[in-house]
């Protein structure tokens, strides 16, 4: 239910999450990015030049329950234990960024777009990259931004 | 009840290069009006000055030159005083807020074998479920975690929260709460907590 603020979790540890995926192509810079702030503000920006030159920027406050669940998913994934040193670097195809603060740990990972599990398995760090891949695509981080659209186009149905 | 003021349009807003975001930690470098501004990370890297203990940092993101063309960190999300972003209802304090389409409820602690049907069975009791999203862990094919449920009316959502929070779904307790709020989470100041310890 409406529990205490997310700041109560883990002894009041701070939580912040930012995810970016994008590329620069013939249509310009197309990207999706969102950010959960410790106070619950969710900011979201989406630029897709494919349809027309539109830039969508939204913000909304999520409840403590949402922050708590986001934090749980991150902890569950154990992404904070990983390191992007051996992950593929961003390239012409695209770029992903994942920045998380959890308590006194702060990660800021960058890598290329990941097409499929084959890319994961053939990488130099298949174990770590798999964790990233599943976190983003399986836990649906790449869909969390949809919470930020006032229209609330639901994650399913897109 | 939270104000129902909301943006009714989904359309894009033009990029606003105002940079009055109080949380910005980086230098106030005004970007040239980029066609595709990104968010700027609002968390300082490598240990905020106020922290008792500096943060442990890890990742290429800290080593990249923030001015390099590949990074383009400046102002993707930044410039986000209210003017830069469409805000979804804000009348000050925290409290439920309505999205464009309805009232959205977050269900957590969902059993990994739950199906959408199970959720419809429970939440359909409180009103018509306009939308339902179940977060599925693709790795195992099982549900892990949460669902989002949307109702048309505040009263339906409120009743769903009140009556289903803390109940069981497939023998596992679920928590049910609002997904959105009209204001920031009340945060305890961690420094004060440490001083009190």
Automatic annotation (TrEMBL), chain A:
It is found in: Nucleus. GO terms for biological process: RNA splicing. InterPro entries: Mago_nashi (IPR004023), Mago_nashi_sf (IPR036605). Keywords: Nucleus. It comes from the Eukaryota. GO terms for cellular component: exon-exon junction complex. Pfam families: Mago_nashi. Belongs to the mago nashi family. This is Mago nashi-like protein. It comes from Aegilops tauschii subsp. strangulata (Goatgrass).
From TrEMBL, chain B:
It is found in: Cytoplasm; Nucleus. Residues 61-76 have a biased composition (Basic and acidic residues). The keyword Nucleus applies. GO terms for biological process: mRNA processing; mRNA transport; nuclear-transcribed mRNA catabolic process, nonsense-mediated decay; regulation of translation; RNA splicing. Residues 103-181 form the RRM domain. This is RNA-binding protein 8A. Residues 1-93 are annotated as: Disordered. Belongs to the RBM8A family. One of its GO terms (molecular function) is mRNA binding. It comes from Aegilops tauschii subsp. strangulata (Goatgrass).
């Amino acid at each position: 239910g409406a529990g205490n603020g997310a700041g109560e979790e883990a002894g009041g540890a701070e939580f912040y999450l930012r995810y970016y995926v994008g590329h620069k192509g013939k249509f310009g810079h197309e990207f999706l990015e969102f950010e959960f702030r410790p106070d619950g503000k969710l900011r979201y920006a989406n630029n897709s030049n494919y349809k027309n030159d539109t830039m969508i920027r939204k913000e909304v406050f999520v409840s403590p329950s949402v922050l708590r669940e986001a934090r749980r998913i991150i902890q569950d994934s154990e992404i904070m234990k990983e390191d992007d040193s051996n992950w593929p670097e961003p390239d012409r195809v695209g770029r992903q960024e994942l920045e998380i603060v959890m308590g006194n740990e702060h990660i800021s990972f960058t890598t290329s777009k990941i097409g499929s599990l084959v890319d994961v398995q053939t990488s130099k760090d298949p174990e770590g990259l798999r964790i990233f891949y599943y976190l983003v695509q399986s836990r649906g981080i790449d869909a969390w931004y949809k919470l930020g659209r006032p229209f609330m186009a639901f994650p399913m149905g897109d | 009840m939270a104000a129902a003021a909301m943006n009714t349009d989904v359309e894009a807003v033009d990029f606003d290069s105002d940079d009055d975001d109080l949380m910005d930690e980086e230098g106030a470098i005004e970007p040239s009006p980029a066609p595709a501004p990104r968010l700027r990370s609002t968390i300082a890297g490598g240990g905020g000055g106020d922290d008792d203990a500096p943060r442990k940092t890890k990742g290429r993101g800290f080593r990249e030159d923030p001015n390099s063309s590949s990074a383009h960190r400046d102002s993707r999300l930044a410039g986000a005083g209210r003017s830069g972003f469409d805000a979804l209802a804000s009348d000050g304090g925290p409290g439920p807020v309505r999205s464009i389409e309805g009232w959205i409820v977050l269900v957590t602690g969902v059993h990994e074998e739950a199906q959408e049907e199970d959720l419809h069975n429970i939440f359909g009791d409180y009103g018509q479920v306009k939308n339902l999203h179940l977060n599925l862990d693709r790795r195992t094919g099982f549900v892990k975690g949460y669902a989002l449920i949307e109702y048309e009316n505040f009263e339906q959502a409120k009743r769903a929260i009140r009556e289903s929070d803390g109940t069981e779904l497939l023998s596992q307790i679920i928590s049910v709460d609002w997904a959105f709020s009209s204001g920031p989470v009340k945060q305890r100041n961690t420094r004060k907590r440490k001083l009190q310890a």
